[in-house]
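Incident log, support desk, overnight shift.

02:14 A customer reports that sequence design results differ from what the structure should imply. Their input is reproduced verbatim below. On-call engineer (initials T.W.) acknowledged and began investigating.
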């Protein structure tokens, strides 16, 4: 009887430890995404800056899994909408509803997609396809929102909110892919 009680107590503390670890992971990736927003390069011809946010969105999916990765990005968005300057140097609902709002809203979706489909150690080709699909989600939602917010057509949205960012996206996606692919462990 005593062993059962110890086992149950250990199981409860283990559950708390797992829940605590999950909460820390969610918070850490929300903060990392915010830090990624501060690493930004403004472009003179578009209100969309180059940032490191998407790298951390992809990384959150790789390390946290679908639900927790999406929650980390929802937490990030919540902090920004609440007024903290975590959106590439700005914060508040007005900024979230501005030209870059679609990119921001795509973050939880992309993180969830990666988290549901990729884990450290997965095969290179499969992981690359999933990360590219997540990038497509971000660009599609981002460019669609951008077009509506700026009152421009699809061609202009593509020219201002997608094409200038493709080289950086290749680099960030490659870096995220490096987090997935690990050499085999020799025994």
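02:41 Re-run completed on a clean worker. Output:
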């Amino acid at each position: 009887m005593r062993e059962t009680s110890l086992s149950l107590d250990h199981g409860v503390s283990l559950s708390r430890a797992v829940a605590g670890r999950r909460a820390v992971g969610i918070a850490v990736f929300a903060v990392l995404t915010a830090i990624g927003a501060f690493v930004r390069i403004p472009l003179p011809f578009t209100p969309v800056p180059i940032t490191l946010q998407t790298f951390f969105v992809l990384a959150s999916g790789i390390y946290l899994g679908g639900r927790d990765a999406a929650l980390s990005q929802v937490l990030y968005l919540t902090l920004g909408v609440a007024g903290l300057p975590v959106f590439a140097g700005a914060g508040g609902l007005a900024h979230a509803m501005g030209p870059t709002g679609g990119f921001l809203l795509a973050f939880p979706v992309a993180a969830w997609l990666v988290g549901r489909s990729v884990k450290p150690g997965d095969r290179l080709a499969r992981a690359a396809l999933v990360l590219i699909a997540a990038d497509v989600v971000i660009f599609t939602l981002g460019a669609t929102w951008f077009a509506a917010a700026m009152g421009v057509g699809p061609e202009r949205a593509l020219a201002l909110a997608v094409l200038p960012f493709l080289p950086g996206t290749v680099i960030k996606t490659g870096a995220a892919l490096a987090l997935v692919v690990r050499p085999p462990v020799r025994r």
